[in-house]
Amino acid sequence: MNLASVTVDGRAVRYEIAFAVPSLPPALSAQMRLGIPGAAADFGPLLGAVTGKVRVTVNGVACATDRGRVAPPAKEGDAVRVTVDYACAAAPGVLAIRDDLFDVLGDNFHTVALIVWPGGSRQFMFQPDLREARLELSASTAASGTSSFFLLGVEHILIGWDHLLFLMCLLLLGGSFWNLLKIITAFTIAHSITLAAAALELVTLPSRLVESTIALSIAYVAAENVLLRDKAASKRWLVAFVFGLVHGFGFSSVLKEIGLPTQGLVWALLGFNLGVEAGQATVVAIAMPMLIWLRRRPWEPRAVTTVSAIVLAVGLGLFLERAFF
Questions:
Q1: Which among 11, 150, 219, 297 has most CB atoms closer than 10 A?
Q2: DSSP 3-state assignment of 321?
Q3: Quick one: pLDDT band at residue 199, thresholds 50, 70, 90?
Q4: How many Å separate Cα 15 from the centre of its chain?
Q5: Which residues of 68-101 are buried (b: 16+ CB within 10 A; e: fewer)?
Q6: Strand stretches in the chain, DSSP E
Q7: Whether the Cβ atoms of residue 193 and residue 203 lie closer than 8 Å to each other
Q8: How many helices (H) and strands (E) does the chain have?
Q9: Closest to 64 (Cα-Cα) out of 9, 6, 12
Q10: CA-closest candidate to residue 59, choices 85, 86, 90
Q11: CB-CB contact of 217 with 191 (8 Å)
């Protein structure tokens, strides 16, 4: 998933998009001289793809491409950022954005774009069969910004398999209903705190550190399930809170990529967080009957140990990959 932002300011429209370098198709990477020893990267083909395949129309009149630029990755693992400015004949009443980047990047490529204008914002997902966003920049569409961030939050938690794996591993030894409730509540409070702090840039941590620690949290909880089964359950809410603080920084990554709108910032952040909680609650609601059923089986200890051992191996492998590679 690529993240883009479209900012409307009078007759100017700015389109910004971030690309993960490994996700670029081989043909385009070759044109950009990526991975060639001793060759300096040339991001011109990527800029040309964006300026040629993304078109902006205001009130039925195409906007002119004013200028475009590329910000190369500051360090290994960072995204390439492309920014294109469009000059329009009039301030938008009806804004249309056409995205044909699929023709260059393939059908597996899709973009979630946050469209922001004075007084409102809206999210739109471009797909091979849904290439154009068209909206009236009025008060009625302005109200959709919060719901857009809510849906983005739901999507983010549902595709965040590492966060869900950590939570499910916690619940395997959750014990009573009261203990399960404490675990979920502690995790929710903790990641909500750091999600807000990171999204508002009050606290910043290196992404490699955050992602590595998230992987380590999975391995740690799985190890507790295997080695400290009887002692771990009573303190699970504390483990959920401590590691939940780190997971909150992970949740904030998508907001950092898109950027929070200056108008309605609090509502956008609240909508995203509520979306994360709704997605999390849905997963927990689905998992709870299975966990209750499992606890009634005589072979439940062996099943928990086996599953946790597998998760431990996955967590350690993920940690090594994120920390060192």
A1: 150
A2: helix
A3: confident
A4: 19
A5: bebeebeeeeebbbbbbbbebeeebeebbbebbb
A6: 2-9, 12-19, 54-58, 61-62, 64-71, 80-87, 94-99, 111-117, 120-126, 132-136
A7: no
A8: 13, 10
A9: 12
A10: 90
A11: no
**8 A C-beta contact, residue 172 and residue 236:** no
Joined together, the tokens standing for residue 146 give 């919060």
User: The tokens of 194 are what?
Assistant: 């750091």
For 227-266, the DSSP string reads: H-HHHHGGGHHHHHHHHHHHHHHHHTHHHHHH---STTHH
Residue in the block written with tokens 């062996």:
302
Mean per-residue pLDDT of the chain: 84
Q: How far apart are CA 188 and CA 194, in angstroms?
A: 10
Q: Say how far apart CA 231 and CA 87 lie, in whole Å.
A: 64
What's the pTM value of the predicted model, to 2 decimals? 0.67
Q: How far apart are CA 171 and CA 180, in angstroms?
A: 7
How much is the pLDDT for 258? 61
d(CA 318, CA 214): 9
* Paired sense of beta strands 2-9 and 111-117, if any: parallel
What average pLDDT does the segment 92-116 reach? Answer: 86
The residue whose two tokens read 């990171």 is: 198
pLDDT digits (tens, 9 = 90+) for 286-299: 888 888 888 888 88
What 3-state class would DSSP assign to 207?
A: helix
pLDDT of residue 84: 95
| Average pLDDT estimate for 199-207 | 83
Tell me if residue 202 falls in helix, strand or coil: coil
